[in-house]
Amino acid sequence: MTQEKLDIRFKSLKRYKLSYSLLVVTLVLNLISLVLFVNGSDNFTDLSDYIKAGSMAFFTVLYAYFIYSWKNKPFFIITPLLVMSLLQILTVKWQQWSFGLNPFSVIGLSLNFDTVSISVNLLAIIMVGLAWHCRSFAK
To answer: CA angle, 78 as apex, 81 and 27 as ends, to 5°?
Structure first.
């Protein structure tokens, strides 16, 4: 089977369309988080605020690239999408510091303790499952 026929067959699957929709939702949520953070009047008081805004902008651009690649060359982006989604599942916040990939727009479960907060990103878990199924199709 040629690559073009395989692409057409893959793009007709529900998991491809659902993955694309989830990528768009994630991009929109990242964009909303970035706009709300930048428009906050009390933000940008020290260097860490600029770093947060920069990383939020980076992830917004990264998801835009994922959407572009998913539309044009979906088999090329499956593994990076799977790895990134795996890294986004868990975020640990301790005082002002966040440890995890993209801790700014998490939809999921958050467990708050005295000084530590643990967030589990449900969108990332769903994306891992979809990317895994897409990866198994690509093989």
So the answer is: 40
Exposure letters 52-80 (e unless 16+ CB within 10 A, then b): bbebbeebbeebeebbebbeeebbebbee
Partner residues linked to 132 by β-bridges? none
Strands 108-112 and 90-94: unpaired
Q: How far is Cα 100 from Cα 104, in angstroms, rounded to an integer?
A: 10
Compute the CA torsion angle 54, 55, 60, 61 (nearest 10 deg): 70
Dist CA 80 CA 3 (whole Å): 20
List, for residues 84-102, the tens digit of each pLDDT value: 888 888 888 887 777 777 6
pTM for this prediction: 0.81
* Residue found under tokens 């929109």: 28
Closest of 19, 25, 14 to residue 132, by C-alpha: 19
